[in-house]
Design a protein that fits this description.
By secondary structure, this protein is of the alpha+beta class. It is built from two helices and two strands. Strand 1 and strand 2 form a beta hairpin.
């Protein structure tokens, strides 16, 4: 479901969670459908719905 070192918090899709991930040098996550999602896009509000 996710890459090594990527925690479940990023799947929430909230900007605060994305900012936390970015501070921990995480660039992207893989959502429950196997899509790669950029944490920067989540933080910027481009990606709003993450399942």
């Amino acid at each position: 479901m996710s890459r090594t070192g990527v925690s479940w918090f990023a799947l929430a899709g909230c900007r605060k969670c994305a900012a936390y991930g970015l501070k921990r040098d995480l660039a992207e996550i893989i959502d429950t459908d196997g899509r790669t999602v950029s944490l920067q896009d989540v933080h910027n509000g481009i990606v709003r719905n993450i399942d």
